[in-house]
């Protein structure tokens, strides 16, 4: 399998410096890779090279994340990030692509897909939750916080944003031998990029997940109505999004290709070769 170089780039998007990673031929079919929390495009650093022989892969850092700017005037909500993706893809002239949906990137990506359904060639879904009845047990803590008044809820979430919590987020519920394969670079790097402003932004986004639940039926309706070709690769060792969260997609996408890997929420760290092989085989047929 041929590997390609990942190029690290910046662009000016309406006065905001946006960092992104890109690999593959400019005229190849595109895979758009919105990242999850508390990560950045760094999560795709190893996934991109082995697919770059045949596809153009693009992974931006959202404003307030990774190496992108943290402008004061940006709308740090799911709607704001969706608008960012629309402007980012327009700036690069991307009109049709496979969309990778992971973590909170799945919420943003599906809002984007709803607004631009003709742009979606296919979906790759990896540990992204849109079915409230099958959320994992780790959500119970968040739900308890959401029941408090907004000021207390925000304060509790904000206090919990720490290097130790980042480590717990990245390790999640994977068994010990898999946890040992997840490099501490993930939480050490991303914690080093946090500022007080970014901590505030993260707390607001996490608090906003409560209202985002109201969007779940809309996401499901989009999938049911449009039926894009879909690959689901899932790490069930995930306290937020267990096996049932993956199987729920088959309610609206009965023809989706579903694979469970021996991993967790950040399976590209532990199951990279399998994820790449499944992606390649799927996109050769549907990309």
From TrEMBL:
Ligase keyword on record: no
Name of the featured protein: Hydrolase
UniProt keyword Hydrolase present: yes
A GO MF term: epoxide hydrolase activity
Keywords recorded for this protein, A-Z: Hydrolase
Matches recorded under PANTHER family: AB HYDROLASE-1 DOMAIN-CONTAINING PROTEIN (PTHR42977:SF3), HYDROLASE-RELATED (PTHR42977)
Coiled coil: none
Domain AB hydrolase-1: 29-271
